[in-house]
UniProtKB/TrEMBL annotation:
<dbReference type="InterPro" id="IPR027623">
    <property type="entry name" value="AmmeMemoSam_A"/>
</dbReference>
<dbReference type="InterPro" id="IPR027485">
    <property type="entry name" value="AMMECR1_N"/>
</dbReference>
<protein>
    <recommendedName>
        <fullName>AMMECR1 domain-containing protein</fullName>
    </recommendedName>
</protein>
<dbReference type="InterPro" id="IPR023473">
    <property type="entry name" value="AMMECR1"/>
</dbReference>
<feature type="domain" description="AMMECR1">
    <location>
        <begin position="12"/>
        <end position="202"/>
    </location>
</feature>
<dbReference type="InterPro" id="IPR002733">
    <property type="entry name" value="AMMECR1_domain"/>
</dbReference>
<dbReference type="Pfam" id="PF01871">
    <property type="entry name" value="AMMECR1"/>
</dbReference>
<dbReference type="InterPro" id="IPR036071">
    <property type="entry name" value="AMMECR1_dom_sf"/>
</dbReference>
């Protein structure tokens, strides 16, 4: 299985990013308004890789069920700040769920998806696109202004068939599952995934 190498993080870097995410959620639950949106860890103590622009999604789960997921497709700020921002947003600004409460914290697990560069896909027909998708590897971005949506590679765990994956993505973008136009823009990307479950050996 081909994997893209786009960022070099050691175990200490990964633990640091998870700690930043956990801290952001905990501070928000404790209503520390002054510092909830700040990354209080010293940026001088971390590797340069974490201070480079990065795009990420932060996913929260409770009892293995989704509890929040927010991120960005564009790298516009240092990776550690991006993780901090989206951890808080996933906990308190995902409109699909009520804000995370302090009593839930012990049951919450955090996963990070760091996005690699997007690659344009050319497809005249839906079958052309399906033939190019790599289940379990590719995240996919659909852009048909004003519609846009993405599925992270981890979504393949629930939607294992390419046709099912694609139909659900179109619906997420607000389009009919059978909709097709040759001018839809498609992009795929890969992610580096980091989770508290993996780091703790659970």
């Amino acid at each position: 299985m081909v994997r893209m190498s786009f960022i070099d993080l050691n175990d200490r870097d990964k633990q640091y990013l998870l700690a930043i995410a956990r801290q952001a959620v905990e501070r928000g639950c404790l209503a520390d308004a002054e510092s909830a949106n700040e990354n209080t860890a010293s940026k001088h103590a971390v590797s340069p890789a974490l201070q480079q622009p990065g795009a990420s999604f932060v996913t929260l789960k409770k009892a293995r069920e989704l509890r929040g997921c927010i991120g960005t497709l564009t790298a516009h700020q240092p990776l550690l700040d991006d993780i901090n921002e989206h951890a808080r947003a996933s906990a308190f600004n995902d409109f699909r769920f009520p804000p995370v409460q302090a009593h839930e914290l012990p049951q919450i697990t955090i996963s990070l998806s760091i996005l690699g560069p997007a690659e344009n896909l050319e497809a005249d027909t839906e079958q052309d696109l399906l033939d190019q998708l790599r289940p379990g590897i590719d995240g996919l971005i659909l852009t048909w202004p004003p519609h846009q949506a993405t599925f992270l590679p981890v979504v393949w765990e629930q939607l294992t068939h390419p046709a099912e994956f694609l139909s659900a993505l179109k619906q997420k973008a607000g389009l009919a599952s059978h909709f097709w136009h040759p001018n839809i823009q498609w992009q795929r990307y890969q992610t580096l995934n980091i989770s508290e479950d993996e780091q703790s050996g659970r």
